[in-house]
Amino acid sequence: MLNGFKDFILRGNVISMAIGLAVGAAFTAVVTGFSTAFITPLIGLATGSVGDFSAAKFAVQGTYFPYGKFLAAAIAFLITAAVLYFCVVVPMTKVQNRFAKEEEVDIKAALRDCPRCYSAIPAIASRCGHCTSEVEPDPEALSLTKLPVQR
User: pTM of the prediction?
Assistant: First the structure.
């Protein structure tokens, strides 16, 4: 039982995930600190508050609702999401697209039904293999195979 747990913990993907979570938590703390120190006061100044709206609240029948804390957290989340998207996701997508190999097209994988006998035939077929009737090949499938158009 403990050997299985040890194998699970020592797998590469679990350790990578743990490192990613630790770095993500540290990154979130930095972005939250930046948001609290700079963005929130700037928005407070722009909206006419006294520099910081994180302490803003309203009361209903003696119960206080600190909506300013929610706004500060929402701003920190949006900044974190934007930085991660533009600094991690977009560059990684470009790198993956650059090194991605073009996959071979399997010309027999795309199937369609014969309009006469309703049997499954390849999309590029010009004759049904079951009822031998002539059918029009699918132009999309033909363009994927880079075969010359047959007339």
Answer: 0.50
